User: What shape does this take?
Amino acid sequence: MGLPIRLLPVTILAVMLLLTVKLGDIWQDVTRLGPAPLAAQQQQPNQPAQQPGQQPAPKAQSMPVPNSAAGGKDGEKPIDPILFSRSEIELLQELSRRREELDQREQTLAQKEGLLAAAEQRIEKKIGELASIRVDIESLIKKYNEQEEAELQRLMKIYEAMKPKDAAAIFNNLENEVLLQLLERMAERRVAPILADMDPKRAQQITSEIAARRQMPKLEEAAKQ
Assistant: This one.
């Protein structure tokens, strides 16, 4: 136990020597700085005292803080992914996947709408072409009917000018449709002598068909009513 007692005076002596050296250094710094720095230090009590031999700290420049670190545009705190639980992360991943599917579906619908619009344009073009063709066909049919009517009127005048016996010989060999059209356009006073000179069976057949054709318009009118 004698060793610690002997070291105690030596330790105290060393501490006093260090304090003496420190006090001497501080006094030299105060003498070098003069009264002006002391006054400046008194005016700014909140600033920390500058260590001897330390360079003055430069003024901190304001650096822009990114939104992610500053908490976004509204000053909110940034979201730390570490704070999410596993279920929340899986939910976010599922929502992200669904969002991608919806975007893909929206693109597909947009493409289909474009295809439908193009198809509608082609259909409208075809309808216009068909309408033009229909007009042309109707014009041709009208022209054909006019030519046919003119030809029937010419033949009707020829047969009316013929003798009934000569006309009857020709009518016996004509097709029913052509013969009926001619007889319908001829005057009744011209038709009677021709039918009298025709073959009796042929004349009977033609007479029955003429009567049936005259009844058809009446039946059509009754059906419409």
